[in-house]
Amino acid sequence: MARDIIFDLIEDERERQTVGLELIASENYVSDDVMEAVGSILTNKYAEGYPQKRYYGGCEVIDEVETLAIERLKHLFNAEYVNVQPHSGSQANASVYLAVLKPGEKMMGMDLSHGGHLTHGSPVSASGLLYQTCFYQVERESGRIDYEAMRQTALKERPKLIICGASAYSRDIDYKKFREVADEIGALLMADIAHPAGLIARGILSDPLPHCHIVTSTTHKTLRGPRGGIIMMGKDFENPWGHKTPKGEIKMMSNLLNMGVFPGTQGGPLEHVIAGKAVAFEEALSDKYFDYILQVSKNAKALANAMVSHGYQIISGGTDNHLMLIDLRNKDINGKEAENCLVKAHITCNKNMVPFDDKSPFTTSGIRLGTPAITTRGLKEKDMETIADLIDEALMNKDNDTVLEAVGKKVNDLMSDRPLFKW
Ligand code: DSN
Q1: According to the model, what pLDDT value does residue 246 have?
Q2: Hey, which end of the chain has fewer CB within 10 Å, N or C?
Q3: Which of the two residues, 240 and 115, has the higher pLDDT score?
Q4: More confident position, 245 or 419
Q5: pLDDT digit string (tens) for 8-31?
Q6: Which atom of ligand 1 sits closest to the CA of residue 195?
Q7: What is the 168 CA–ligand 1 centroid distance (Å)?
Q8: Which amino acids are annotated catalytic?
Q9: What's the pLDDT tens digit per position in 296-332?
Q10: Does the pLDDT of residue 422 top 80, yes or no?
Q11: What is the residue with the minimal CA distance to atom 7 of ligand 1?
């Protein structure tokens, strides 16, 4: 039988990932070990339930795999409770909402166009369709979260759940301030650390676990694991919202969160992915990973500085983490055009709305750049200057395919001796 064309397409994608510059802030390259675990026979097994409490036979090995993932993740974040089953960050968030809110109750998140995330209450996501929502924003001048305005919105709207965390915000977050506001109105506080999780795990950014009741994340961005989600708590606590067992007992939040994942929003866990998560968590505990994640943050600062030296405006003026949001309004090019011409030059990033944007999400005034993937390829601060030169050359010649092709060749040269990640 002829080999399925799908494997040719996988090879095409391997080539694209190898020769190009990957600047999408939410992407990364996993190690061969993570890849092997995710591609393993564990994909064959049904294991609805949790270790030692499954609805299927034959889960003895699977239980060991999932228990290892749980223990390693607890260690990595110093968490008392974790759930490693969410299929994605969106699923993790949906599970938390199901556990702590009733349909129609109110949540408050960061405005999507100011750096928030679809699942933090956007009207086009289940979060905005099932729950009432309100939002906080960044300050126009500083580009940083306006904590006092956020407090005023919370006092006025009285959400039951406050969400902090973002997908396009380059500054550290004051989780203590968020907790003070949550306590003032008796709300629960959830941090979504999908983007900066690796920087938080290794102490490069502030830790939300001591301040936030619940923390969710993905595992495939800065954490450099397989695609997936997780839920954590620094400390378990009694559910304050009166959800009781049929016998009238008050449930612990860990119990509600587990039920929110399974059977609340998911069926059988992806145990091959959970095995990949376990491998990635062990890697993230290593000295080698610490060097990597520190370099991610150094590279982001270097890239932001180099872009500024070419006259680009970074929202908030710089970055504390792994990404930056560039406002292109002084450069006579919009986000969509920028994304498209960079792709022609083998540089991948995404168009992104900037705070107070006057363009639609399909056009946008900005692009978002991130350094997790290129740091995995071994690039350092000096390379960030080269990358900024290449980006600028492409953007300034957005309609000149000859120049864009020449920039693409320089990109291919830069990446030619940098294999995809091997641990
Ligand atoms: N895909 C994620 C990101 O790029 O930030 C959001 O879901």
Answers
A1: 67
A2: N
A3: 115
A4: 419
A5: 999 999 999 999 999 999 999 999
A6: 5
A7: 9
A8: 46, 48, 192, 218, 221, 227
A9: 999 999 999 999 999 999 999 999 999 999 999 999 9
A10: no
A11: 117
Q: Which domains are seen in the chain, by residue range?
A: 9-30+287-415 (3.90.1150.10), 39-284 (3.40.640.10)
pLDDT bracket for residue 250 (50, 70, 90): confident
Q: Which residues have CB under 6 Å of ligand 1?
A: 26, 117, 167
Q: How large is the average pLDDT for residues 219-232?
A: 98
User: Which atom from ligand 1 is nearest to the alpha carbon of 27?
Assistant: 4
Distance 192 CA to ligand 1 centre (A): 12
**Which atom of ligand 1 is least distant from the CA of 24?**
4
What distance in angstroms lies between residue 167's CA and the mean position of ligand 1's atoms?
6
Of ligand 1's listed atoms, the one at least distance from the Cα of 167 is: 5
Spacing, Cα 317 to ligand 1 middle (Å) = 22
Q: How many angstroms separate the CA atoms of 374 and 323, rounded?
A: 12
The residue nearest atom 5 of ligand 1, judged by CA position, is 167
Q: For the segment 366-393, what is each residue's pLDDT rounded down to a tens digit?
A: 999 999 999 999 999 999 999 999 999 9
Identify the bridge partners of residue 370 per DSSP, sorted by sequence position. 323
Size of the chain in residues: 423
Residue having the nearest C-alpha atom to atom 6 of ligand 1: 167
- 56 CA distance to ligand 1 centroid (A)? 34
Among protein residues, the one with the nearest Cα to ligand 1's atom 3 is 26
Distance 26 CA to ligand 1 centre (A): 6
Whether 243 has a pLDDT exceeding 70, the answer reads no
**Mutation probe of ligand 1 site: the residue of 26, 350, 364 with most atoms within 8 A of C-beta:** 26
